[in-house]
Amino acid sequence: KHQAVALRSGADHSVFYRCAFKGFQDTLYVYANRQFYRDCNIYGTIDFIFGNAVTVLQNCNIFVRKPMSNQQNTVTAQGRTDPNENTGIVIHNCRITASSDLKAIQNSVKTYLGRPW
């Protein structure tokens, strides 16, 4: 349940189709360049989609998992350092839901869509 990157992608024009990325903290590291994810399942707790790429998530299922004690969930963390960069994480036609381990306690855990990294 600790920090572990399932995928770090920095390849330009990378495409992931019908893939599953399962982790807790820092699951999907969208490191750099342009990336496209379609019909993927992504699981995590803290900053589990993070980085400084131009990233489009389309028709994906994003599952928020139960965090460790005294933690809260944050789905995305954008790592832009230069305000002139055209990077960001686009969530298009995706579904964000509590995973089965979080559903029983979801009202006692705060979950945020994003934060700066």
TrEMBL record:
E.C. no: 3.1.1.11
Subcellular location: Secreted, Cell wall
Keywords attached to this entry: Aspartyl esterase, Cell wall, Hydrolase, Secreted
Biochemical pathway: Glycan metabolism; pectin degradation; 2-dehydro-3-deoxy-D-gluconate from pectin: step 1/5
Annotated catalysed reactions: [(1->4)-alpha-D-galacturonosyl methyl ester](n) + n H2O = [(1->4)-alpha-D-galacturonosyl](n) + n methanol + n H(+)
Keyword Metal-binding: no
Active-site positions on this chain: D47
One MF term in the entry's GO annotations: pectinesterase activity
Residue ranges constituting the Pectinesterase catalytic domain according to the UniProt record: 1-117
GO biological process assignments: cell wall modification; pectin catabolic process
Top-level taxon in the UniProt lineage: Eukaryota
Listed name of the protein: Pectinesterase
Higher taxonomy: Eukaryota, Viridiplantae, Streptophyta, Embryophyta, Tracheophyta
